[in-house]
């Protein structure tokens, strides 16, 4: 309905100003609050909250631990820029391209 869409837009809107904390003010910490609860209790009144374990179930956290996962990605190249100690940053710049596989094997 129009009313629920308006309320959702209001809850999702971001203010231009950040919440300024007073000295010695504590910030509540919760594990993965439901979105509606978070929006109503913290977002709308602009009360800071530390959200614990917010990404603990993301597959990337498990998959990205093993560098061999990246070797199965589409072949591509990684641009690399090396800056030498030089008074002129343009002259001291070396640009090259490395295959993604070599990048993973050499740097991850």
Describe this protein's structure.
The protein contains five helices and four strands. Helix 2 (35-43) links the parallel strand 1 and strand 2 (49-52). With 108 residues, the chain is α+β, with helices and mostly antiparallel strands. 34% of the residues lie in helices and 20% in strands.
Short description:
With 108 residues, the chain is α+β, with helices and mostly antiparallel strands.
Radius of gyration: 23 Å
Lateral arrangement of strands in the main beta sheet? 1-2
Helix proportion range: 25-40%
- For the termini, the CA-CA separation is 50 Å
Percent of residues in β-strands = 15-25%
Q: For the residues shown, what is the average pLDDT?
A: 77
Number of strands: 4
Main sheet makeup: 2 strands, parallel
Class by alpha and beta content: alpha+beta
| Unreliable parts | 14-18
Q: Give the count of helical stretches.
A: 5
Which sequence of SSEs, written as H and E, runs from N to C? HEHEHHEEH
Shape field: elongated
Q: What's the SSE blueprint?
A:
Elements: H1 2-12, E1 28-31, H2 35-43, E2 49-52, H3 59-63, H4 68-71, E3 77-83, E4 93-99, H5 100-107
Parallel strand pairs: 1-2
Antiparallel strand pairs: 3-4
